[in-house]
Amino acid sequence: MLLVKDMKDLKGKRVIVRVDFNVPQKGGVISDDNRIVAALPTIKELVGKGARLILMSHLGKVKHKEAPEVVEEQKKKNNMAPVAVRLGELLPGVNVKFVNATRGEELKSAVNELKDGEVLLMQNTRYEKGEEKCDPELSKEWASLGDAFVMDAFGSAHRAHASTYGIPEILKAEGKQVALGYLVEKEVVSLDRVVNVPEENHPYIAILGGFKVSDKIKVIDSLLKKCDKVIIGGAMAYTFAVALGRKVGSSPYEPDQLEYAKKMYDTGKILLPVDSKIANDFENPTDIRVVEGDIPEGYQGMDIGPKTAELYAKEIAKAKTVFWNGPMGVFEKDEFTAGTVAVCKACAELKGAFTVIGGGDSASAAKKLGYKEKFSHVSTGGGASLEMIENDGHLPGIDVIK
Ligand code: ADP
Ligand code: MG
């Protein structure tokens, strides 16, 4: 597997870099540039090697099935131009250009005009209908722009699109250098430690929460095989509770997942909440209380209760490896952060253990609650990190490079 730091003879070569510049923005104002910053080590490495960089990324969603005027509106909303401006500010001394095209002569000549050590950011890859279909013609046209390819978009590595899969597949077949960037390398190395866990790194405990069981079926399956214990919180716990014949009031649960939940519970590895913090209303919780066992009519579960938090913390304290996905409660509301804080704290207090967060909302919860720095690794790719676990370490955008 080639890494960007080991790439050779790049002076004057056109290198396509698939980055993840899918930043939150509105009307051209970027509210969080973390993802741009995260790509800088790879970009700087390649600039330093005298390459001519062509950066590609998607930004937001463009639904090509919609009416033409809707598609135009979505394109306008997800214009990559402001990202180039921000990137330029983050790379003083480097010439950063933008090309408002995704195919054709305008794109080609922008690439041809590049000088050694210059950076060109292409317009949003999703302006092209063929991107998400991994269209062979589009992949061919994009691949023809590069002499080498670097994958540094971990958050898109679980998608076999033209820019993540089509291009490297072609360039690799042509004998050109295809490599993983620094960001992806770190993700692969760290996530491998929760995918392949040797005996001496057990107990391995997974903490699963969040909203739906159905979103996480494959990851639950996979974690039950790898882990010694799977701790369940969040709304998904209510599906398990109903499956075991308990009452959950008006808590959200999934009737079509009951049989599955029961089967999973019968593995004997699953820990469920023994109490819950409940409220009379989700939007406007005026009556908040803690109950053990059944949740009464007219109330819904919003967080794990204090006894559960203590029980889970004790369990986590035994771990040598932890994978956490999904908040224990509605952490966005201050009244219901305690459960999520408890698991964060228990992970933070572990000594010599390897702790990983996978999942967008879990990462923002850890950040909001002040525990992000305490984890060994916080994945930048929510969906990608889960798929990595599900597929035993395999992702299309990474396997194609390997
Ligand atoms: P991740 O992005 O880390 O994979 P999910 O998207 O699965 O996590 O779930 C996060 C969401 O789950 C949060 O918005 C949180 O408010 C919600 N959630 C957690 N517990 C509950 C609950 N008891 N009731 C409703 N929503 C909940
Ligand atoms: Mg989420």
What secondary-structure arrangement, pairings included, does this model have?
Elements: E1 14-18, E2 25-26, E3 29-30, H1 34-38, H2 40-48, E4 52-56, H3 68-77, H4 81-90, E5 96-99, H5 104-112, E6 119-122, H6 136-143, E7 148-151, H7 162-173, E8 177-180, H8 182-195, E9 204-208, H9 217-226, E10 229-232, H10 236-243, H11 258-265, E11 270-271, E12 275-279, E13 288-292, E14 300-304, H12 306-316, E15 321-325, H13 338-348, E16 354-357, H14 360-368, E17 377-378, H15 382-390, H16 396-399
Parallel strand pairs: 1-4, 1-7, 4-6, 5-6, 7-8, 9-10, 9-15, 10-11, 15-16, 16-17
Antiparallel strand pairs: 2-3, 12-13, 12-14
Helix pairs in contact: 6-7, 9-15, 10-11, 12-13
Adenosine-5'-diphosphate is lined by residues 209-211, 215, 234-235, 252, 301-302, 325-327, 329-330, 332, 359-362, 382.
In summary, what is this structure?
This protein has 402 residues and is of the alpha/beta class.
Please give a structural write-up.
By secondary structure, the chain is of the alpha/beta class. It folds into 2 domains: 180 residues, Phosphoglycerate kinase, N-terminal domain (Rossmann fold, 3-Layer(aba) Sandwich), CATH 3.40.50; 201 residues, Rossmann fold, CATH 3.40.50. It is built from 16 helices and 17 strands. Helix 14 links the parallel strand 16 and strand 17. The N and C termini lie close together (5 Å). The structure holds adenosine-5'-diphosphate and magnesium ion. The site of adenosine-5'-diphosphate has 20 residues, from strand 14 and helix 14.
